[in-house]
């Protein structure tokens, strides 16, 4: 159940990124992909992190039947980064829903 709900939220995040014109056809550099900073914020934008790191890693956990993170807070970062962009409110909303879903006691 949690896997299917999470997978649905990941699809919604991808859809919102695409709708907002934030979906990229070019992957970040290998250096950026190896970033150890939270959200890889030193070398890529939040939307790149979501597309190229977060969504694929979460999908890999789901595909492998591995435990999903239980402490997650992406929405506050999104609110900070995109606070001036009202058009991204639906994307921030989906991120908040995912945060709440994964932070629920299991």
Automatic annotation (TrEMBL):
Origin: domain of life: Bacteria
Protein known as: dTDP-4-dehydrorhamnose 3,5-epimerase
Cross-referenced Pfam families: DUF446
Domain YqcC-like: residue ranges: 6-101
Matching PANTHER family: CYTOPLASMIC PROTEIN, CYTOPLASMIC PROTEIN-RELATED
